[in-house]
Amino acid sequence: MTLALTQSDFRAHIKKYLDQVNDDDEVVYVARSNSRSVAVLSQEKLYWMEKALQVREDSLDYAVARDQLIQRHVLPDDPIVESNDDYWGQFK
Asked: Which SUPFAM superfamilies did the record assign (predicted)?
């Protein structure tokens, strides 16, 4: 679940929200003045996002990064593919 907060609420409960970012893999959006905002996310989540963007899509590194982002609910899970003759025929 993503959280959207005011700057004063974030400041008043910073430990609670930072724990949610790290322990529950939450993303916290903090609204600031002048219609500006920031996002707070874990270093690990940011690492996998950057990794997925920096490597080739057909590489093992991309597959691992993509899997990590699926586990963190950043990307949707892959649809289940029916195992029938049409499916397997595409690999011949």
From this structure: YefM-like
CA distance 46 to 70: 13
Q: d(Cα 78, Cα 71) in Å, to the nearest integer?
A: 11
> What is 1-41's CATH number, 3.40.640.10, 3.30.43.10, 3.40.1620.10, 3.50.50.60?
3.40.1620.10
The DSSP code for 53 is H
Separation CA 67–CA 84 (nearest Å)? 25
Mean pLDDT for the stretch of residues 1-30: 94
pLDDT at 89: 79
